[in-house]
Amino acid sequence: MKFTHVPTINTRYWSGIALASVFGTNLGDLYAHESGLGLLGGLPILVVLFLCVYAAERFDKFGHDAYYWLCIIIMRTGATNIADYMAGRRHMHIDRLELTVGLGVLLAVLSFLEARSDKVANTPHALKTLPNTNPLYWVAMLTAGVFGTVFGDWCQGVVGQGLAAVGLTAILLVVLMLYRKDVLKSVHGYWLAIAVARTTGTAIGDWLAESKVANLGLSLATVLSGVAFVAVLVLWRSRRVAEATPAG
What we know:
This protein has helices at about 10-35, 40, 45-55, 65-85, 95-115, 135-160, 160-180, 185-210, 215-245. By secondary structure, the chain is mainly alpha-helical.
């Protein structure tokens, strides 16, 4: 993607990633169940949508990050369905812990390859600039999404939905704090934070949709998480624009 179409890595970015992880979890489940296409039947449509957005971005000369976030949501939705197919009892039924380890290794390899090819990976601007959003980046993002879904589901199975959501949120906050403090200043640190955000989003999304405490249901949880995701990106950006606009 063009530099003018990718967001800066800051608090707004990580808020968007976290909310996209929750929204994508709910949307993936809703899409698979309500479309009638199943876990894999709807994937070709998502692939076409992703390619259309990715292609349209190349012809847009205006500076905004809408294309990036659309790709993120499409990718996260597909990752949820792929993960559920691979680990689901009615489908491939791969052990979740084994699958988590395998996906973690794959993500580490992709991170290593991207770090070698990314010229800004070890510069002072690495914390503020996304890795190159080339095909390798999106393969890594898909892998992180599948990883987060599988690992998030495994954590819920071990400690329960509520505790998993709270515990993973705490871990995510620590990881993001370390990232901001330059402790994780690298492409590898970026992908670690993405993987934790994806895992946390899975736990929170499932809790919102299935918990008797929240009592929202999948449809309402999807709507609310989607509204929160869009609102944060739009209103946060609008406030920055307003602050940058001279008075009078």
